[in-house]
Amino acid sequence: MLNINKIVLALIPWVLPLFMACNNNTKAYKQADTHQEKTIEDQDNIPDKLIEVGEGKSVDGNLSAKVFATDSLTDSYQELFIQMEDSKGTVVKKAKISLLPEMKMGMMAHGAPVIQPAESAANGFFKGGVIFIMPSSIESQHNWTINLLVDQMGEPSNRVNVPIHVKEVKEARTIAFDGGDEGRFFLSLIAPERLPVGNQFIRFMLHRVSKNEFPAVFDGYEIALNTHMPDMGHGSEGNENAKAAGEGYYKGKVNLSMPGLWEVKADLLKDGKKVSTEPVIFKIQVKK
After folding, report:
1. Which of 50, 78, 77 is nearest to 66 (CA)?
2. Signal peptide: which range, if any (predicted)?
3. What is the pLDDT of residues 8-26, one digit of tens each?
4. What share of the chain is helix, strand, coil (3-state, %, to 5)?
């Protein structure tokens, strides 16, 4: 809950001006999110087992879409697999799709960091990604929608809205933090809840909070990594800072030397100097 409150506080300066945009959000969110033109890694890698997490149809009925994932969606880095059909039931294989995630919170609304799909489907799926920065809440009427703006050659532009539900992850995988003069950021750990023992690669994505935009950040930054095992009172050696790997991804190494609960502390560096002004700590269960 603490992390959710920090995320809401991080967004308040930017979502308040969107009060009047809620009834006409197509334009607002198209402007907000289409800055991110990069595509997700391994576009052709489609998992064998996927579950449907949402579906929708365009207003004119000419286009339908289903959104799949490898598991139920959580407020973290999520790869999405989109399958579209035209009114005749023909699978769409080529299209420019803009993913526009939208969280409605009563009179307020905001987007989320996004990784746009390539323009060609792999095995019938367009693969993209969203970093959901907070969970859905039925009680508070906080609801996520994946808006798909679709452009096909020779066809008018279309839009499909896909309502989805996002559960709260057990341990935070996306954390908002202050970077001093550099602004506010979201750092996302791309990892399952549990990891094996050993020295291993670890990946992150870094996004800046800029009004209702969340541009990927990779120029001149580095993420210093330190590990600590709170139950045992010790850390580990052999960690390597996460360095930019392109398109907002960062890759480093951590040495999780024994089973149990570990904390990975991340500090944002700019040109070798620490700029993050508050702790960013990810908790990871390490299995035998």
Report:
1. 50
2. 1-20
3. 555 544 444 433 333 344 4
4. 10, 50, 35
Determine the topology of domain 174-287 in CATH: Immunoglobulin-like (2.60.40)
CATH class of 2-164: mainly beta
Q: Using CA atoms, how far apart are residues 129 and 115, in angstroms rounded to an integer?
A: 5
Handedness of CA 216, 218, 219, 225 (dihedral sign): positive
pTM: 0.85
Backbone CA torsion sign across 35, 189, 202, 210 = positive
pLDDT digits (tens, 9 = 90+) for 245-279: 999 999 999 999 999 999 999 999 999 999 999 99
Residue 241 CB contacts under 8 Å (≥ 6 apart), including other chains: 222, 223, 224, 225, 252, 269
Percent of the chain with pLDDT over 90: 77
Q: Please give the order of strands across the beta sheet that includes 114-115.
A: 51-57, 63-69, 77-86, 126-131, 114-115
